[in-house]
Amino acid sequence: MLGKNAPFIIAEMSGNHNQSLERALKIVEAAAQSGVDAVKLQTYTADTITIDKRDGEFFISNPKSLWAGRSLYELYQEAYTPWEWQEKLFARCKELGVICFSTPFDPTAVDFLESLDCPIYKIASFESIDLPLIKKISRLGKPIIASTGMATVSEIDDLVRTARDNGCTDLTLLKCTSSYPATPADANLRTIPHMKEMFGCEVGLSDHTMGIGVAIAAVTLGATVIEKHFTLSRADGGVDSAFSMEPQEMAQLVRECRAAYQSLGQVKYGLAAGESTAGRRSLYVVKDIKAGEPFTEQNVRSIRPARGLKPKYYEKILGKHAKCDIKFGTPLSWELID
Description:
The protein has helices at 21-34, 46-49, 72-79, 83-96, 107-115, 131-138, 153-165, 191-199, 213-220, 247-264, 314-317; strands at 8-12, 38-43, 59-60, 70-71, 99-104, 121-123, 144-147, 171-176, 202-207, 225-229, 282-285, 300-303.
């Protein structure tokens, strides 16, 4: 299963290629150098995802949106990854030892990706309610990663049941906040273990926040897949650049997420590898003592290192007598006590 032994980290290219194949290939190369496990593409055209209507609900009028003032059709024309590039991108990823896969947005995209032997399929948050599409992908028998932004518990249940009923045996759900960018306060990461328990599958995070803190926190809560948008430089612009990671940031995210995962370990108390009890306190004779003399607060103290009796015995031995002469600096043991 994806991410079963460590967080599976995905660099999402989305539209950050800015309609340049050369730039798209450089994004793949930079992602590989940053240490990610996979690069994800998106497979659609403006005509397969919407219609060319530039008013009403097909126009982005929300002034807070990154894409305000544009029609959906115009946005997707700019953001889509030309299908004729995708074989080249899959091949370059293979050369670099990185998995390449994609999000199909309609059945024709699934058929196209199958011609490229796409190894994993992603369901986007907005398509998580498209059960016919999920059914078609599930029947391929390949791993599915599904974002759940905005989805209710009932809608996620529909997704999971549809996938499993149609042959998907490797399903990972991603907690996702479908705002761009998202804020940490909206992440609600405590949903991750709850979702894992509720649906009995691996759960990860599709993260639209800036920085790496939210992703690291997700790993500590059990996320086994982390997806982040990726670009060469936010300054270069592009439809998703404002909430995308740059190469040095992605490399840091990879390192810190894997360190966070390693730190989880297991439930363990007591001495750990690399620890030593030598720095602990124990009972030592701090003045020369003659045989038969009592142990007192003046000649016995709890000090470092830990070669003598544990400090918990201090009060018990006060007033008892020495069996023999004991020199200053001797760790106290039961054999020395009468």
